[in-house]
Every structure is written in C-alpha cells, then in structure tokens.
Amino acid sequence: MKDFEVFQNIEELDSESKYLVHKAKEATAHAYAPYSKFQVGAALMLDDGTVVTGSNQENASYPLCMCAERVALYTAATLHPGKKMTKLAVVAHKKNHKELTPATSCGACRQVMLEFEHRQNMPMQVIQLAKTNEWILTKGTGSLLPFDFSGENLLAV
Ligand code: THU
Fold this sequence. Notes:
The chain has four helices and six strands. With about 160 residues, it is an alpha+beta fold. Strand 4, helix 3 (about 105-120) and strand 5 (about 125-130) form a beta-alpha-beta unit. The longest helix has 14 residues, at about 105-120. The two termini are about 30 Å apart. It binds tetrahydrodeoxyuridine (THU).
C-alpha cells in the first residue's frame, strides 16, 4: 500500500492541509531560535477540529533545544487529553527570510509521533516540505520510521 503522496505545489494539497500549513507558517513567528536561526512551526489538527501549534524553542545549552513538532504534540496531549491527532504540518524558514525551506522532522520527533499513534490507535498524517521541494503527505509514521522501536519491543520475550 502506498502510504505517502507527493505534491509539486502547495495548491495541489486538500484545503485542510493547506490551512494547517498556513497555521504552521504563522507559528514560526513564535520560534525562539537565536542560535540556529532556523524557525520551525508545527500545526496539529485534532479530531474535533481544534488546531494546536508549536514552534522550536532553543537554549544556550544546545541539547535542551526543543523541536516545534514536540512542542505541538505535548501541548495537545496536555490541553486536549483524549482527542485524537489526525494531521500534523511542519514548515520552516530561515530568520528574516519569508520563503519556506525544507524541513523534514528529526528522528526524535518521528519517534514521538509514533508513540502518539500507538496511544490513540490511529495513524497521524504528516505534511512536510522535502529537500526536493515537494510536499510529502505521509499517511502515518510507518513510512517516516520503518523498523521502529516501540512498547511492543519491550513486551517481546
Ligand atoms: N527543529 C525542529 O523544530 N524540528 C525538526 O524536526 C528539526 C529541527 C529545530 C530544532 C532547532 O531549534 C533548529 O530546528 C535547528 O536544528
């Protein structure tokens, strides 16, 4: 089964996805990225239509930097417990640049998305701008994180 779609142009995305990309772009304004100057925004759709956003938050102690995706995911889990996460859009631009730059989620964020999919027993779609400058809409973390590690590994004998 093909579990992702590729779009050359943002106009080809469905209207909900375009809206989420728009909200993610807005969220980049709240990024705190004085070190990398790479401003990331994430917008997460919940099953009742609520949109929760996140932006990357950096720290002078670099390993403490937090990605926009995890800010959005953990905020949604805290403020809207029990609601399912249906779709996540992620975008980025360099500071003082308007045009988007490719931002495909880091491995840590993919691992966190996977755990939320397991918790809610439902896949989460993810929209990102790939390095090819194409929009990738994945149907779930299966294609973002094949051969994953999850709680199932811990149960295996
Ligand atoms: N960053 C994200 O917010 N999401 C990602 O998936 C990749 C990286 C942030 C972390 C850091 O603040 C900056 O981008 C540069 O790595």
